[in-house]
Amino acid sequence: MKPQAVIFDLDGVVTDTAHLHFLAWRQIAREAGIEINEEINEQLKGISRMGSLERILRCGGAEHRFSQLQREQMAERKNSLYVASLQQLTPSSVLPGIAPLLDELHERKIAVGLASVSLNAPHILRALGISDRFDFCADASRIERSKPDPEIFLAACAGLGVDPVSCIGIEDAQAGIAAINACGMLSVGIGSRLQQADLLLQTTAELSWSRLQRFWQTHRSAQVL
Q: Which of 9, 135, 139, 198 is catalytic?
């Protein structure tokens, strides 16, 4: 008894580029006369690029100061800053526990998917040296609604040809946990501040196939009963 697929979020689960996002957004915010901190950055996890910009502008009371064209230019500049910073990523940037888990899933012929709102996801996976371990990657180009809407996880399931109810999703953001749960998937949360995750772990180092297998069997067996 095993899941058909395990679907991963990217930032904060496979690798940690959250700080790189923060540095890029902080530069854009400062150019707009806004100061942001790590607390605001936490609110941007799992949110699309334009959605993140809207939140930053709102926090600075600047939501009416910029035209749509200016906002698009700001978002594009942020992405350029972020992409430039990705050059520092290497296989050693994969978070603890993830590489062996991907190998175990591959050996057991369990499909592996990625559900990330980052348009840079394929580039990041190549830089990390693990793109061959993912059978399908769903990114923002495939969806209209960002997390907590379940669309990106549903897109990943569709790409893998699996039933969401037969999958496990792994996330580090509250919006992502809500999206996974809305699909009917079992949710695994990484971090101490998440709510409503079916399984909550402190770090990715606690992830392993044996742990996911026990988790799957316990929850799905209980639902059958």
A: 9
